[in-house]
């Protein structure tokens, strides 16, 4: 497993370097994140301060005095292309009104009805994989039937806060008004990021999200 130093108290793991052939790298990242978390909880490794997953890498922040030990421990792990479902206690429900401007286009691209898109989106738990793009924005990976949709060819200059979108294999919620190229299928009143809240972000990697139809249409 390829490991690179990141200052004196952190290192980056290139998960792709040890992911099984033919596997999705992100699935291996999520599995390795879960393995490290379980090891910390059980006391098998000490000195881990934070673990920050990304699409193909993992940043591990440590107690500076224990970096070598943590590197040795993580280097001995074998990521698998299988993720653990989020614990029921860590699943956050987010109400959605499914009236997004791209909902019909998404249904056409999937070859199913609009109601079927809504059922697919809400009848599964979405795992929070990693954050990026903006404070409070997280990339969510579905635990059910996998479907993918292309980003818009022309991004919108301004997307309203709370917009629920799809891009590639991911779903996500825009935490504030911003440009964006995801396919918008709905909107939520949930506040994804609030600097006056502790913690400011509603979600965190490893959590689960279940989308609930606010209008009860399905």
UniProtKB/TrEMBL annotation:
Q: Name one GO molecular function term.
A: ATP binding
What keywords would UniProt list here?
A: ATP-binding, Hydrolase, Nucleotide-binding
Which top-rank group of organisms is this from? Bacteria
Q: Which residues form the Carboxyltransferase domain?
A: 1-203
Report which residue ranges the record marks as coiled coil: none
| SMART domains assigned | AHS1
- Put simply, this protein is called Carboxyltransferase domain-containing protein
Q: Which organism is it from?
A: Corynebacterium argentoratense DSM 44202
